[in-house]
Amino acid sequence: MVRRRFAAGDHLTPMNTITRTAATSLLGLVSVGLVAPSAVAAPAPAPSESEHPVLTAEKPWVIGHRGASGHRPEHTLEAYELAVRMGADIMEPDLVSTKDGVLVARHENEISGTTDVADRPEFADRKTTKTIDGAELTGWFTEDFTLAELKTLRAKERIPEVRPGNTQYDGLYEVPTFAEVIELRERLSAETGREIGIIPEIKHPSYFDGIGLSMEESVVAQLEEADLNHADAPVMIQSFEVQNLLDLNRNLDAEVPLVFLAWYEGKPWDHEAGGDPRTYADLMTAEGLQELSKDVDAIGPEATMVVPVAEDGTLQEPTSLVQDAHAAGLLVTPYTLRAENNFLPASLQSSEDPAEHGDMTTLVHAHLDAGVDGVFSDHPAAAVEARTSWAGENPVIDTGVQADSHRGQALAAGAALLLTGSLLVRRTARRA
Question: For this UniProt entry, which segments traverse the membrane (predicted)?
């Protein structure tokens, strides 16, 4: 099938808008129990024999932010695996490039805070100062190391003052490649009987493109190689910039859902560098979301953009962001919900000890009450427990592949609605 590419000035047709709005509205009715799945879906077909079936995690999703980074050094295979073992539906690797063009998982390309590189005398001469997205940074950068060199380093806890327990794992784990994360997903899906998702974030895309290490092509190629570049694959691709998501959608044959990440202030760096006046706030308006929906399938806003926090540290009523995004046919997965007092609003803190855990459950419940489609958390077990307690009053559809026979039709119908009716309809309408 020849896929239509969007050009500048293209707009959604009324039929596309109606289709997307209807799918999202129907999804919402089913997920809160107002419409039974059997009322809106045909009897379930036989279970799919596909090696990569539709992502069938319970929804709202719990996404292991950098893995179970509240319990292990972030962006290690061990952190990702622990997140899944704790019940996370999706694991999130941030991607940067090595000197030889290999994608590896680090939160930033400057790695002195997350590896032992500063203690390695053989790499002392690699320390340098660079400007990344307008900020001057001094340290060691992945793009100055080959993969073989990076593999000699060991990960360490990024914030030991808040997570002292994680320091016992310093020096034990390697820097993983994206290929290794994909392999881990396959293994954990087989071992757990759940189709585990991955939601890679492409870090600093304009910067890496500018030094000849563009990552988008490699992301798509590796997904293709793993038979994961299709609309029902358990994969989504994220970015804080706009242009690389447009490129993925229009030029690079990315078939998986795309997620635009938003901070509560400032601009995407590609807008800043290119003179585009639109800020993150502009893009999160109803009009901005409609424009984004031509190329992306979901947004990942900073959590206070969904549930604001007052100056006295109390949670406020949700903004209209979730409602506006759903009206545009976009899913919403805010970040990052953490258990430590250091990160919680004052009203949810348990003490003045920044490392002690407070009341993350209330924060999760507030976001689920706002209608989000998933949450990023450093503490997946606590987030899953919070989702479970929330579901006692607000049932969600368990769309597990391994369904009991007496529940099979309803669960399969729920799965079809959750993704086929939301992401697949959207991507087919946009890309056919």
Answer: none
Parallel, antiparallel, or unpaired: how do β-strands 298-301 and 258-262 relate? parallel
Give tens-digit pLDDT for 326-353: 999 999 999 999 999 999 999 999 999 9
As a whole number of angstroms, the longest Cα–Cα distance in the chain is: 66
What the block records as the tokens of 225 is 């190689």
The tokens for 82 are 């622990």
Structural domain 14-108+175-431, CATH architecture:
Alpha-Beta Barrel (3.20)
Please name the residues in contact with 136: beta carbons below 8 A apart, sequence gap of 6 or more: 129, 130
What is the per-residue pLDDT across 383-424, written as a single tens digit (0 to 9) for each? 999 999 999 866 544 433 332 333 333 333 333 344 434 555
CB 290 within 8 A of CB 426: no
What is the pLDDT confidence band of residue 427, given thresholds at 50, 70 and 90? low
Amino acid at 247: D
Token duo for residue 69: 């980074």
The reported pTM is 0.81
What is residue 332's DSSP assignment? E
Whose tokens are 């855990």? That residue is 357
